[in-house]
Amino acid sequence: MGITLFLLLSTCVEIVQSDGEGERPVAVMYPRMFTGEAAMISGQRTIALGRALVPGEVLEVLPEDLRTFVARDTQVDEIFLRAFMLRRLMLITRQLGNVVVLGSRHSTNTMCLREFLRRNGHPYTYVDLDTDAASEALLDRDRLSPFGIQTATAGCCRRLPNVFPGVFLATRAMGPPTSWQGR
Question: In order of start, what are the domains of the chain with their CATH numbers?
Answer without folding.
Answer: 5-93 (2.60.120.10), 99-171 (no CATH)
